[in-house]
Design brief:
Elements lengths: L27 H6 L7 E5 L4 E12 L5 E13 L2 E5 L5 E4 L31 H22 L7 H11 L5 H12 L3 H17 L4 H15 L2
Antiparallel strand pairs: 1-2, 2-3, 3-4, 3-5
């Protein structure tokens, strides 16, 4: 639901440092061996120098049995010496995957551009690219504010049309818009978003399973 994921998702991306198998490909025995299971307090360090520390309270698997989401409480997320997230009673929902290209809270690649809720900067971006990425960040921020009730006058339909025009390969924000449409009973809008995501899957087959998993996660959450 919107309340359950009001702060969106985050993903450090990549494999755990010193471990050759990605979390989503771990068997139950692997997860147990690396202490990645419910009730365990753990510190996970990823190859991108992101560290996630906290108590695991639940995990979510897709139809293939792969872990796609790990939820922590009392959690902190750091990148080198920067604090990216510090729990203040909030849960941290870590999307699992080596190839996630964006996240509900904003773009997921720490090295690509500034995250909406964090202050990571990059000096390697060209001005034109930075302006475009900043525009995408603004869309994520607008929808996050809508979800949190800070600004419910935002036109989700307008944001969706702008996304299709300027960022046709972005898929996680459309999934969030799909969740909002389903939650609000706007089935026509939900169908329109699904049609667009099918187009994204055809143009980028490598993210097709991630889109399917995201839609299924939304549908499962909204089942009465």
């Amino acid at each position: 639901s919107i309340e359950k994921h009001s702060d969106g998702f985050g993903s450090p991306l990549g494999k755990l440092k010193g471990i050759n198998i990605a979390i989503e490909h771990m068997s139950p025995r692997d997860l147990k061996a690396y202490n990645i299971y419910e009730g365990q307090t753990i510190s996970l360090e990823f190859e991108g120098e992101v560290k996630v520390a906290g108590e695991i309270i639940t995990g979510t698997r897709n139809l293939r049995g792969e872990i796609i989401l790990v939820t922590f409480k009392n959690c902190s997320v750091t990148h080198k010496d920067k604090i990216l997230f510090q729990s203040k009673g909030d849960l941290y929902n870590m999307a699992v995957g080596e190839t996630i290209v964006s996240a509900f809270n904003g773009p997921a690649d720490l090295d690509s551009f500034n995250l909406i809720s964090h202050s990571i900067s990059s000096t390697t971006l060209k001005s034109e690219s930075s302006e475009k990425q900043s525009k995408l960040e603004q869309y994520y921020e607008q929808i996050r504010h809508y979800r949190q009730g800070k600004n419910t006058t935002i036109s989700r339909h307008k944001v969706f049309e702008e996304l299709k025009k300027d960022f046709p390969n972005d898929w996680l924000l459309p999934i969030e818009l799909y969740e909002l449409a389903r939650t609000n009973g706007d089935n026509d809008f939900a169908e329109e978003i699904m049609d667009h995501l099918e187009t994204v899957k055809r143009s980028k087959p490598s993210v097709g399973h991630l889109i399917d998993d995201g839609l299924k996660l939304v549908d499962d959450i909204l089942v009465p």
